[in-house]
Please model this.
Amino acid sequence: MDIVVSLKYGDFTERDPMIECFTECLMKKSGFMYDDYTYNKTLIIGFAGRYLEPEGAQTVYDNCIDRFGQTVCVTGFEMYQCIHETAVSEWVSSNF
Model:
Protein backbone atom coordinates (compact mmCIF):
# COMPACT_ATOMS: atom_id res chain seq x y z
CA MET A 1 0.00 0.00 0.00
CA ASP A 2 1.22 3.50 -0.76
CA ILE A 3 2.57 5.16 2.40
CA VAL A 4 0.41 8.28 1.98
CA VAL A 5 -2.70 6.13 1.75
CA SER A 6 -1.53 4.11 4.74
CA LEU A 7 -1.12 7.26 6.82
CA LYS A 8 -4.50 8.55 5.70
CA TYR A 9 -6.17 5.39 6.97
CA GLY A 10 -4.23 5.27 10.24
CA ASP A 11 -1.58 2.69 9.46
CA PHE A 12 1.47 4.03 11.27
CA THR A 13 3.50 0.81 11.16
CA GLU A 14 5.84 2.01 8.42
CA ARG A 15 7.97 4.70 9.96
CA ASP A 16 11.34 6.13 9.03
CA PRO A 17 12.92 9.61 9.00
CA MET A 18 11.53 10.45 5.54
CA ILE A 19 7.97 9.54 6.56
CA GLU A 20 8.35 11.51 9.78
CA CYS A 21 9.52 14.57 7.85
CA PHE A 22 6.66 14.15 5.37
CA THR A 23 4.12 14.29 8.19
CA GLU A 24 5.90 17.30 9.73
CA CYS A 25 5.60 19.09 6.36
CA LEU A 26 1.96 18.01 6.07
CA MET A 27 1.19 19.37 9.54
CA LYS A 28 2.83 22.71 8.72
CA LYS A 29 1.35 23.09 5.21
CA SER A 30 -2.14 22.26 6.51
CA GLY A 31 -1.79 24.92 9.21
CA PHE A 32 -1.98 22.52 12.15
CA MET A 33 1.61 23.33 13.15
CA TYR A 34 3.33 26.70 12.99
CA ASP A 35 6.93 27.24 11.90
CA ASP A 36 7.90 27.61 15.57
CA TYR A 37 6.46 24.11 16.20
CA THR A 38 3.53 25.25 18.25
CA TYR A 39 0.06 24.09 17.29
CA ASN A 40 -2.95 25.89 15.85
CA LYS A 41 -5.61 25.11 18.46
CA THR A 42 -8.46 26.69 16.49
CA LEU A 43 -7.70 24.73 13.34
CA ILE A 44 -7.16 21.39 15.10
CA ILE A 45 -10.40 21.70 17.07
CA GLY A 46 -12.22 22.90 13.96
CA PHE A 47 -10.95 19.96 11.93
CA ALA A 48 -11.85 17.42 14.62
CA GLY A 49 -15.19 19.18 15.08
CA ARG A 50 -16.17 18.25 11.53
CA TYR A 51 -16.47 14.66 12.75
CA LEU A 52 -16.99 14.98 16.52
CA GLU A 53 -19.08 16.83 19.04
CA PRO A 54 -17.34 19.91 20.52
CA GLU A 55 -16.25 18.01 23.64
CA GLY A 56 -14.67 15.29 21.52
CA ALA A 57 -12.86 17.84 19.37
CA GLN A 58 -11.46 19.50 22.48
CA THR A 59 -10.34 16.07 23.73
CA VAL A 60 -8.38 15.54 20.52
CA TYR A 61 -6.50 18.79 21.09
CA ASP A 62 -5.99 18.20 24.82
CA ASN A 63 -4.67 14.66 24.31
CA CYS A 64 -2.23 15.67 21.59
CA ILE A 65 -0.90 19.11 22.50
CA ASP A 66 2.03 17.74 24.48
CA ARG A 67 3.39 15.63 21.63
CA PHE A 68 6.99 16.62 21.09
CA GLY A 69 9.66 14.33 19.71
CA GLN A 70 13.42 14.39 19.63
CA THR A 71 13.38 16.11 16.22
CA VAL A 72 10.95 18.40 14.44
CA CYS A 73 10.06 15.57 12.07
CA VAL A 74 9.29 13.18 14.92
CA THR A 75 7.17 15.91 16.52
CA GLY A 76 5.11 16.28 13.33
CA PHE A 77 4.64 12.52 13.04
CA GLU A 78 3.67 12.10 16.69
CA MET A 79 1.11 14.91 16.49
CA TYR A 80 -0.39 13.61 13.23
CA GLN A 81 -0.67 10.11 14.67
CA CYS A 82 -2.19 11.38 17.90
CA ILE A 83 -4.81 13.51 16.13
CA HIS A 84 -5.77 10.61 13.89
CA GLU A 85 -5.93 7.99 16.63
CA THR A 86 -7.68 10.21 19.19
CA ALA A 87 -10.26 11.46 16.68
CA VAL A 88 -11.06 7.91 15.58
CA SER A 89 -11.29 6.75 19.20
CA GLU A 90 -13.59 9.63 20.12
CA TRP A 91 -15.76 9.04 17.05
CA VAL A 92 -16.12 5.32 17.78
CA SER A 93 -16.95 5.91 21.46
CA SER A 94 -19.60 8.48 20.58
CA ASN A 95 -21.21 6.46 17.78
CA PHE A 96 -21.23 2.88 19.05
